[in-house]
């Protein structure tokens, strides 16, 4: 999966979701280490202790991505170097955190791909009760994800897609990528995007039919750049 995703971006996959009618579940995250990661979601709800991560690793499969739900908290870091090191030893492909990390220098040295909302020296100063579903789902932003989902992350953030739709979405994303690359090459060669998508025709047609949208026009001329 990571090899195929290497030639795509999360933006391509997001556009593919729009075209396929799949909910676009994206969040803005920063890459701490590594440029991208792809794998099945291994959810874990953090409540103040690393034991939830260690328990998640007990049932992990090689290539899973630990997806940490820390409620987007900005007052504590929930993942540090020991968790990253243990994750690597367990065959985890990367860590995606809806919260903060710490030990940036050590995590960088480990080389485990990590995406988070940022860094903070302070670790957890609390210990809350662990929910019964702490290892079966995670809430990231406005989205709830499970082991039936795949997470893809790169420099633009992360996107979650149903595992059973990955192949279809990758195919659509590759088509969108190829179209955009052709359009970019033509712009560099001197043929404007307006010319490529026959924008003047769109303006004329919209004047005659105000209900016509640009996306409808793009589909008609096979120049989809927005989806």
Low-pLDDT stretches are: none
Question: For the record, what CATH class of the largest domain applies?
Answer: Alpha Beta
Q: Roughly how much helix do the residues carry, as a percent range?
A: 25-40%
Strand order of the largest sheet: 1-12-11-3-4-6-8-2
Q: Give the number of helices.
A: 9
| Overall geometric form | elongated
Structural class: alpha/beta
Number of strands: 12
- Average pLDDT confidence is 95
CATH superfamily of the largest domain: Ribonuclease E inhibitor RraA/RraA-like
| Reported CATH architecture of the largest domain | 3-Layer(bba) Sandwich
For the largest beta-sheet, the strand count, sense and barrel status come to:
8 strands, mixed
Radius of gyration of CA atoms, rounded to a whole number: 21 Å
